[in-house]
Amino acid sequence: MPVLGFGTYALEEVPKSKAWEATKVAIDVGFRHIDSAYVYQNEEEVGKALREKMADGTVKREDIFYTTKIWSTFLRPELVRPALERSLKKLGLDYVDLFIMHFPLPMKSGDEILPKDASGEVIFDTVDLRDTWEISLLQALEKCKDAGLTKSIGVSSFNHKQLEMILSKPGLKYKPVCNQVECHPYLNQSKLLEFCKSKDIVLVAYSALGSHRHPNWVEKDSPYVLEDPTLKAIAKKHNRSPGQVALRYQVQRGVVVLAKSFSEKRIKDNFQIFDFELTPEDMKAIDGLNRNFRYAKLLL
């Protein structure tokens, strides 16, 4: 798994074609780790970009590490493989490199992304998380891996206790290779990172720049990570942008980091993090910015 990945999520008002254009730019720039999901509703466009860059000789399939995720409405055992096959069909690919359980909260089964009742409340499924993993993921996902439809399986937004619950299952055939969580200087996830490292699980950081501000998830007066004075001072010292420093911070602490942008300039800037190094003092200063602040509050 390349340590720097390109994220493809966009707000609803962003044209789907932007995902196609941005993914091609990302590959041209050098990104080889592409992160997407069923719920992003743009895998056809991302897949088109991948196929075009393979067709023109820029990359081969084996050069690309592609991640997709199974959404919370498909966590029953009979729905898991069809969900992956649906993504593969949209992508035009034979397999994905990583198939992740997107969120540890099963919702009512069906094609509606956020099933709601008459009062507007989200309808959750009766499937227990332990059963979801043991039955759906440890059987259906394992079968997907054994069938060659995915190289590995993982989870997203799991906390320490949820990971322990999974890992404690007797006869575990495939443990999750990664846990994808919100992680940035204001939420550095140091304890979770330490636990994941002890279990040989890769921590993958999303919202690493703290710049995703979905109106349903983020309060309007939320702080901007990239405007933090400490981060800006370190960036100035290295003649870099605060965003590049925030991404480099994750790489140096052993975190795989996702960078999302549909701007060609920012995509190029986000990839330029391998020709400088933060000092131990820099790392300590950024560690000190942690305030356990979450942007993705998932106010469903």
Automatic annotation (TrEMBL):
Transmembrane regions listed in the UniProt entry: none
Pfam families given in the database record: Aldo_ket_red
InterPro entries linked: AKR, AKR1C, Aldo/ket_reductase_CS, NAD(P)_OxRdtase_dom_sf, NADP_OxRdtase_dom
Keyword Acetylation: no
Active-site feature positions: 40 (proton donor)
UniProt similarity note: Belongs to the aldo/keto reductase family.
Protein name: NADP-dependent oxidoreductase domain-containing protein
